[in-house]
Amino acid sequence: MAPALTSNSFRIAPGGGRRRLCSTREHKSLKTVTAQARQNPFSFGKPQGDASSEEEAKGEGSANKANRFFIDFGKIPDAKSLVPVVTSPSTTLFASTRRKDPRTVFVAGATGQAGARISWALLRQGFSVRAGVPDLPSAQDLARVVSTYKIISPEESKRLNAVESSFSDAESIAKAIGLATKVVVTVGAAENGPSAEVTTDDALEVVRAAQLAGVGHVAVVYNSGPGGFSGQSTYNVLDGISSFFSNLFARSQPLTLGEFLSKVAELNVSYTLIKAAFTEDYSDESSYGLVVSEEGSTAGTASEFKVSKSQIAKLVADVFSDTSIAENKVVEVSTSPSATSKPTQELFGAIPEDGRRKAYAEAVAKAKAAEEAMRAAAKATDAEEAAKKLEEEVKKLSEKKARATSLNKEAQRRVVEAGSSLDSLFIKAKGLGNDFSWDKLSSQVTAAVSQINNNDTEDTEEKKARTQIATVRGLAKARNLPSKKAVVKKPPQKPKPKQPDPTPEVKNIFGGLFKQETIYIDDD
């Protein structure tokens, strides 16, 4: 945001309470100027009866005739003695809670050629004017002129409030607008003071400031004639060369009228653009009737005449008296000797509304509809993707559920099988428990031991029988052998060592319920 600027303001002092402005000699020399100023307050002639002025006029000859409207500001006293400067900031939109005044108009560039005349015309029709000036000295010059030449009455001076305002940024202009509900700006040369011009870029800043300040209506006056806005060609060869080099070395190109209107149509403020070729108030065209036509209808026609600045000022004041007749309209104003005087309502009533704002509104509506459609399509796409993801999740969950069901059935089957095995084991164990008897077990053990002993006895007897058979056979063979004397040395017999009693081996059987003793007998 642009830095906030404080706009100083002051009010023109009424004529009744002022100090004496000039000496008696100066007062006599200004009588004729005052009379002419009352007839046409913005076209001043030289004072009559001034000897120095008459000698100067004789010396200048024809050059003086070409410039008959001249004000000698050197004879006017210091303007600081005329205007009480207020050092406190003016009432602005950002610092005041006061309500907007529907009868207050802000004039941007009030020290310009057309801006000064528009300010005076508004005061004549009862409006309060906030005159925007580039600096305080310019405001003092304005106060000096209107006070000295009595351009406005003391009552009108009470409704004229000069405020410091430049075209630098919209926020500072909005502060200068203050309580005004209507704004007017003139695009053209010598409209930002006596030497500087107001461009379309400057005018666009004023319109933006009007939107910030809550202004209801903005009037833009566009000087399309020679000497007007430098961006407008006069179809002159020298002018074309000058414009070429000006544009070549310029930092940035100002907006064309079409571009300016397109940007104004985008803002939320009603507007009226008045396009005309300005001329001086003393020209012949100033007595012709006004012709208000639609944009582009009179371009290049031979019957088009220029419009004086005072006529434009009167037209703007009439528009502000009833802005409903000129809302969002672009008109071209000219004069014609055959044109009759008509009220402003009739002049603007036949002009259709500018199509730019409607086209912009339709474009915005289409853009919003397209954006909504894109959002809806994006939401539909997101919903479709979400549905696909949900379907995949449901499928996965179904597969997991089926797998869990299968595992559950397998577990149930195994549980049933395990239950059957346990039942059979329980039955077997129960059967074993029913058939078990200590006496039976003891008899079985005894029979087993007897069987083992019988087997050992049979083996011993068989061995003895075999030994006897072998002995008998040996004796038979020995009888058949020839008799020989044999010496048989009997080895000494060693006494057999007494063997220790065998230690029985004890084992636990049937889970420790019984003990089995096993005795090993040496056959030797």
TrEMBL record:
- Tell me one Pfam family matched here: NAD_binding_10
Biased-composition ranges, Basic residues, are 486-497
- InterPro entries in the record, alphabetically? NAD(P)-bd_dom, NAD(P)-bd_dom_sf
Q: Name one GO biological process term.
A: circadian rhythm
Ranges for the region named Disordered are: 1-61, 474-508
Give GO cellular component annotations, separated by semicolons. chloroplast; chloroplast nucleoid; chloroplast thylakoid membrane; stromal side of plastid thylakoid membrane
Q: Which Gene3D superfamilies does the entry link to? A: NAD(P)-binding Rossmann-like Domain
PANTHER family from the UniProt entry: PROTEIN PLASTID TRANSCRIPTIONALLY ACTIVE 16, CHLOROPLASTIC (PTHR47711)
> By what name is this protein known?
(wild Malaysian banana) hypothetical protein
- The organism is Musa acuminata subsp. malaccensis (Wild banana)
